[in-house]
Design brief:
It is a single chain. The protein is of the alpha/beta class and about 260 residues long. It has two domains: about 70 residues, no CATH class; about 190 residues, Vaccinia Virus protein VP39 (Rossmann fold). It is about 30% helix and about 20% strand. It contains eight helices and 13 strands. The strands form four sheets. It has a seven-stranded mixed sheet with strand order 7-6-5-8-9-13-12, with helices on both faces. Helix 5 links the parallel strand 8 and strand 9. The longest helix is centred in the first third of the chain and has 16 residues. It starts with a helix and ends with a strand.
Length: about 260
Amino acid sequence: MGIIGRTIKWTLNAIPRTALQRVAGWAVPALGLLYMGKGRECPICGSKRRKFLPYGYGPVREDALCPRCLSLERHRLLWHYLVHSPEQERFKSLPTILHIAPEVCLMKQFKRMYASKPQNYITADLESPLADMHFDVQQIPMDDQSVDIVICNHLLEHVESDHKALKEIYRIMRHGGMGVMLAPIDYSREKTFEDDTITDPKQRAEVFGQYDHRRIYGRDYLERLRAAGFEAEEIDYAATFTEQQRTLYSFGCDKLYIVRK
């Protein structure tokens, strides 16, 4: 791991997330000037660099963070899926979207898409200054069947009860709606591991991989989504690309998790 990777890892673990969200928009692009060149291309913002920046709270992943739009591997993979798969038809009528813990790179694209109907794109977070609404996903202050699409990525591993959060998302989703529920999965585990007695941030980082994680999902993740009432699907979208394309876009190997009601 080089000095940039070590610096990014220290910053992620030492500085509060709300502060990071305020400065990342200018600090990361400035750092990206060191990566000028060709070899990588971001399918979200179109930026071209010789490679992407390293990133990671624990083990640092090389070639991960786009210095222009701040997208990670999973964000680039998901956006490509949403705009190139049959799911793209859903967005033509600008259905109501609730985007929980919104990723800046995706949020900017959706705001452009919804420029003529901004009230139909709602962002929410527990504390982010970038979000429209602030709430705990385990108790969503919205009416039953009030949104068409829910995007909630890499959040469920943080909450006290992921089942309660999923039931809330199911409650507010309209019949015929869909959701994107990406999460870090350890495919070597048959069952999800969680232990509520582990509360110390340092110990959580050692056990769960990040100081604010409460569980490690296993291969039963689909079952947990279905237990809330959803139809759930695992999609290995990255496998549909050539090795050259996966390298160009730095998609990683995460799978997509799509739910429907």
